Amino acid sequence: LVTPELIDEAWPQIAGCDMVMLQHEIPAAAIAHTLKKCAEAGVKALLNPAPVLEGAQDWAKDAAFITPNEHEAQALFPVKHRRNTFGNEGPPLMTLGSKGVAYAENSAINTVPAFKVQAVDTTGAGDTFNSAFAVARACGKTMSESITFANAAAALSVQKSAHRAECLI
Asked: How far apart are CA 64 and CA 60, in angstroms?
């Protein structure tokens, strides 16, 4: 139900955000419209390209951050996808599951290792990673610091079943 018109209606609130997060579970037209508006207004946008949508290569360039996993990166950047060439013409970072996260910075490929934990349920780990990464970047943390923080959050999230509700009060 998210449309470009709905984004326009909510734009005054969106324009005041430190970071806008999008993923491919809303219509492509709304994603493309939001990313373009954010880029034009200088509002940082993080795009989690899951699941990969047709045409994403055209509008993903408007995202300040794009966080594909290896399979999504290969689908989005089929020619450019190589661990030694992604960066300027590929994803600025790529999640590698239990191997951590690789990111391009200053013409170098860096890897931030994942935390070694006993995973019980990986449901929502990517969403947790993206949320924590966005918070850290919005707070001015470096790429490495932001990825480490996001990896820690994701590591915590996989250690319990996502389907088990707990009372926190």
From this structure: 9
State the Cα–Cα distance between residues 133 and 143, nearest whole angstrom: 9
67 contact partners, CB below 8 Å, separation of at least 6: 46, 47, 48, 49, 91, 93, 94, 95, 126, 129, 130, 133
Question: What pTM value is reported for the model?
Answer: 0.84
Q: Is the peptide bond before 68 cis (omega within 30 degrees of 0)?
A: no
pLDDT at 90 over 70: no
Q: State the amino acid at position 69 in one-letter form.
A: N
Phi and psi torsions of 66, nearest 5°: -130, 135
Cβ 129 vs Cβ 151: under 8 Å = yes
Mind telling me the catalytic residues? 127
Q: How far is CA 13 from CA 6, 8, 9, 18, 48, in A?
A: 12, 10, 9, 11, 21
Residue 6 has phi, psi (to 5 degrees) of -65, -40
pLDDT at 81 over 70: no
The order of strands in the sheet holding 108-112 is 93-95, 101-105, 108-112
Summarised one tens digit per residue, pLDDT across range 107-131 is 888 999 999 999 999 888 999 999 9
Cβ partners under 8 Å of residue 121, min gap 6: 158, 160, 161, 162, 163
